[in-house]
Amino acid sequence: MQRVDIVKWVATVVQLVGYALTGLNVVPWNVFAFIIGIILWFLVGVMWKDRAIMVVHVGAFIAISAGYLNS
Q1: Interior CA angle at 30 toward 28 and 35, to 5°?
Q2: pTM, 2 dp
């Protein structure tokens, strides 16, 4: 298994944990899980040289950070 595949699957699991924590209303741990998942998916975008993945996750990071800081 390549390094990018490992990062991709870890990021996916972390994101799913974030969704589960949100569903269970476990705040702020859900936000932290999402931030870690976003960073890992951004790294996948870097490894693949895929700007679309990088841009969407920069946007997601800004949105979730702004929401967290505003709450």
Answers
A1: 100
A2: 0.93
Tokens at 19, concatenated: 């969704």
Distances from the Cα of 69 to the Cαs of 22, 28, 50, 63, 64, in angstroms? 17, 11, 29, 10, 9
Please work out, in degrees rounded to the nearest 5, the angle formed at the alpha carbon of residue 13 by the alpha carbons of 8 and 17.
145
Q: Is the torsion defined by CA of 69, 64, 47, 11 positive or negative?
A: positive
Q: Which domain holds residue 13?
A: 3-70
* CB atoms closer than 10 angstroms to residue 61: 16
Q: In whole angstroms, give the CA distance from residue 71 to residue 69.
A: 6
Q: State residue 22's pLDDT score.
A: 97
Number of domains making up the chain: 1
Per-residue pLDDT tens digits for 48-61 = 999 999 999 999 99
